[in-house]
């Protein structure tokens, strides 16, 4: 997920082709304007290196761990090298060239490479031997060099460049090798995708591929050995006028930034490309920008909008099928499953809007919620049976494949339907509600989304669901036609219900609620230390017991012991 963003108010960025920030020894180095490079740690300024007028930095700084040095281009044709420990640039070394330099390309295991605007290169390890570049000048005056990067493979270094010929919309991807101090194996290929426009690109060092995003939202990966594009992601909500930026987070995740100039906002998204699922998203209030770049440094994304720099920290889970199916989000059109659209769906949506505004942390608000009319309670199962049974039967009969491709809205509707079947005496439906409930409890879901849906149900239904889950855990409800929920699945559902309806247990002290609290306390005591969410849910329950003056029961003993050693 994304954390709160941080705006670097005292930093003014220039429009370099490379991103004007790098990470070095738990610090950030940022090109501040044209004459300064600042060192920032924990969002505080530690140091700065400044050039005297009229000199200026013409590229972003690069750090080399091999010789613990910083490299940067000054005045378009001079390489400046200095130590991160130097107080000023006076102790640095200068190397002036006879032709303009585009950038310095960092390498992980070797010293960086200087790339000239013509396409020629110079190995920085040979700076004290010769300043003459090597290789071909393959970039003509009619082409604009936009981007460059490099990777190291056994026995050689590969350099990649992207150019745009003047009066053309077709980008050209170039590559060549450096072996034993010589450049060879030049090749180039046009990047075309019908009538679509290339909006942004980045290099995937984890999978050795060039990543592109196009005006229709398609993301392609181009393996560098043949550049044959393959579809990585289809983002259906992107429109052509939007500014886009893309960055690789790790081998399985990418970040996409979408700048909407009309709404004056930027939508930041984190995608699991292995399972094509949206892991996190965040909306930033931003101004329209012409120069738009995104990069991943350590565990943060950095977004450049013209002169503005924004940091967005994040944390990320490993790419697993369970995470993709159970906890991800998707941006498919939200066409909810509906039956008798003018009755149930309309009333549920109306109730949902009201429910979302409720703070369920107090008894007062809880009582307000209890008094609210509930569309689910008024549901006539006889009227909706024909249509809801189609969904329910498919859910039960098609097994795990269907249960891993559902939406939380479907789960919510099925759950409400199962409760009405179980607690309404007269119904013409042939579905066993226990079978349907067991299938629901064993399906996958996105927890954050499901919690929002579960807040829509009546407190009475929340009590009933908790009782059903406890009955299943105590084997009071068994179904032979399908697999029963595991202990972990039961615990997860109890956790979701307590998060979404903590007010159930804080409501007035009637006998039913008291009995449920006692059962829950026993259940939680038995699960102590087993699940990662236990401490949170136990703290919630301790608060409930304190609120209601309930003495805790004795916990299970025998799992832990204390040994005393005499010294």
From TrEMBL:
<keyword id="KW-0010">Activator</keyword>
<dbReference type="Pfam" id="PF20998">
    <property type="entry name" value="Nol11_C"/>
</dbReference>
<dbReference type="GO" id="GO:0005730">
    <property type="term" value="C:nucleolus"/>
</dbReference>
<dbReference type="InterPro" id="IPR042859">
    <property type="entry name" value="NOL11"/>
</dbReference>
<dbReference type="GO" id="GO:0030490">
    <property type="term" value="P:maturation of SSU-rRNA"/>
</dbReference>
<keyword id="KW-0804">Transcription</keyword>
<feature type="domain" description="Nucleolar protein 11 N-terminal">
    <location>
        <begin position="27"/>
        <end position="314"/>
    </location>
</feature>
<dbReference type="InterPro" id="IPR012584">
    <property type="entry name" value="NOL11_N"/>
</dbReference>
<dbReference type="GO" id="GO:0003723">
    <property type="term" value="F:RNA binding"/>
</dbReference>
<keyword id="KW-0698">rRNA processing</keyword>
<dbReference type="Pfam" id="PF08168">
    <property type="entry name" value="NOL11_N"/>
</dbReference>
<keyword id="KW-0539">Nucleus</keyword>
<protein>
    <submittedName>
        <fullName>Nucleolar protein 11-like protein</fullName>
    </submittedName>
</protein>
<keyword id="KW-0805">Transcription regulation</keyword>
<dbReference type="InterPro" id="IPR048897">
    <property type="entry name" value="Nol11_C"/>
</dbReference>
<feature type="domain" description="Nucleolar protein 11 C-terminal">
    <location>
        <begin position="388"/>
        <end position="540"/>
    </location>
</feature>
């Amino acid at each position: 997920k994304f954390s709160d963003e941080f705006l670097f108010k005292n930093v003014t960025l220039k429009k370099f082709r490379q991103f004007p920030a790098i990470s070095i020894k738990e610090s950030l180095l940022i090109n501040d304007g044209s004459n300064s490079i600042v060192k920032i740690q924990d969002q505080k300024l530690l140091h700065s290196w400044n050039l005297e007028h009229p000199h200026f930095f013409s590229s972003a700084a690069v750090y080399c761990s091999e010789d613990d040095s910083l490299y940067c281009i000054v005045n378009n044709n001079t390489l400046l090298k200095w130590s991160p420990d130097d107080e000023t640039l006076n102790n640095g070394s200068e190397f002036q060239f006879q032709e303009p330099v585009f950038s310095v390309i960092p390498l992980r295991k070797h010293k960086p490479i200087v790339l000239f605007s013509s396409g020629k290169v110079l190995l920085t390890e040979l700076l004290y031997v010769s300043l003459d570049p090597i290789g071909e000048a393959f970039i003509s005056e009619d082409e604009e060099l936009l981007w460059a990067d490099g990777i190291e493979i056994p026995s050689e270094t590969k350099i990649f460049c992207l150019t745009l010929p003047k009066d053309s919309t077709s980008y050209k991807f170039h590559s060549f090798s450096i072996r034993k101090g010589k450049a060879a194996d030049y090749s180039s290929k046009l990047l075309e995708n019908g009538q679509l426009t290339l909006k942004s690109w980045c290099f995937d060092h984890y999978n050795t591929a060039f990543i592109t995003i196009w005006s229709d939202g398609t993301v392609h990966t181009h393996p560098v050995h043949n550049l044959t594009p393959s579809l990585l992601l289809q983002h259906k909500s992107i429109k052509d006028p939007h500014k886009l930026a893309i960055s690789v987070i790790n081998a399985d995740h990418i970040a996409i930034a979408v700048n909407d100039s009309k709404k004056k906002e930027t939508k930041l998204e984190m995608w699991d490309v292995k399972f094509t699922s949206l892991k996190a998203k965040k909306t930033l209030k931003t101004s329209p920008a012409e120069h738009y770049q995104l990069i991943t440094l350590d565990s943060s994304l950095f977004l450049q909008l013209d002169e503005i720099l924004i940091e967005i920290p994040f944390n990320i889970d490993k790419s697993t099928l369970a995470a993709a199916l159970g906890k991800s989000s998707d941006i498919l059109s939200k066409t909810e499953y509906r039956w008798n659209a003018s009755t149930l769906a309309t009333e549920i949506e109306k109730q949902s809007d009201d429910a979302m505004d409720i703070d369920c942390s107090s008894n007062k608000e809880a009582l307000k919620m209890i008094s609210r009319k509930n569309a689910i309670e008024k549901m006539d199962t006889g009227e909706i049976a024909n249509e809801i049974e189609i969904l329910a039967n498919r859910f039960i009969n098609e097994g795990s494949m269907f249960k891993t491709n559902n939406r939380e809205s479907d789960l919510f509707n099925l759950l409400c339907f199962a409760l009405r079947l179980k607690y309404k005496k007269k119904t013409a439906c042939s579905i066993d509600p226990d079978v349907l409930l067991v299938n629901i409890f064993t399906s996958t879901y996105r927890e954050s989304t499901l919690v929002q849906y579960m807040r829509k149900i009546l407190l009475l239904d929340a009590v009933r669901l908790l009782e059903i889950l406890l009955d299943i855990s105590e084997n009071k409800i068994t179904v032979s036609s399908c697999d029963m929920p595991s202990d972990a699945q039961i615990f997860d559902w109890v956790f979701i219900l307590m998060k979404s309806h903590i007010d159930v247990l804080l409501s007035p002290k009637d006998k039913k609620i008291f009995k449920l609290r006692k059962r829950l306390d026993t259940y939680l005591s038995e699960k102590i230390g087993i699940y990662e969410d236990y401490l949170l849910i136990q703290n919630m329950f301790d608060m409930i017991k304190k609120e209601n003056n309930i003495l805790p029961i004795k916990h299970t003993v025998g799992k832990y012991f204390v040994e005393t050693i005499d010294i």
